[in-house]
Amino acid sequence: MLALVLLMLPISDSIPLTRSRLQLWGRLRARHHRAPDADRDRAYAQLRLYLPPTGRVGLVQAAPTGTTAREREYFFLQYALAPRLLVPGADQEFVVVCPASAAASRLDLSAFAAVGRFGDDFALYRRIRG
User: Fold this and answer.
1) Which listed site, 43, 50, 62, 77, has its alpha carbon 20 to 30 Å from 70?
2) Is 92 helix (H, G, I), strand (E, B) or coil?
3) Cis amide leading into 99 (omega within 30)
């Protein structure tokens, strides 16, 4: 019985945090707000339809290295495309380019075919030759 009581102590510490998260969720739901970044995640998830279920996917980004925007973009894409692995550069069969307009300057378009353009945010290319 004592062991059961000792195991229940950590649960009591999580109750205030859980209560505050439920209150926040209730306020967002009452105001008809979606979760932050849900639209971005939904857009990135569209890529899964065109990619193999596993493997590596190249990523070419125009945002400067070390910036928050670049890291945020990378992590959201990696999360949406898991279990695939995002690899910086254009050495893979499939390559995601962010933003889509950067493809002309950062990708050899004679070696890639456009698979899909998802607004101005990003585009997917597939290698067609060496």
Assistant:
1) 50
2) coil
3) yes
Residue 90 DSSP one-character state: S
Q: How far apart are CA 97 and CA 61, in angstroms?
A: 6
Helix (H, G, I), strand (E, B) or coil at 86: strand
Do 60 and 82 lie in one domain? The reply is: yes
Range of the structural domain that residue 17 is part of: 1-33
| Same domain, residue pair 8 and 61 | no
Query: Strands 122-127 and 94-98: what pairing?
Result: antiparallel
Are the beta carbons of 94 and 125 closer than 8 angstroms?
yes
Number of domains making up the chain: 2
pTM of the model: 0.71
Q: Are 97 and 114 in contact (CB under 8 A)?
A: no
Residue 117, C-beta contacts closer than 8 angstroms, at least 6 positions apart:
100, 123, 124
Q: At what angle do helices 68-81 and 38-45 cross, to 10 degrees?
A: 60
- Each residue's pLDDT tens digit, 6-46: 777 777 778 888 888 899 888 888 877 676 677 888 888 89
Residues 29 and 43 in one domain: no
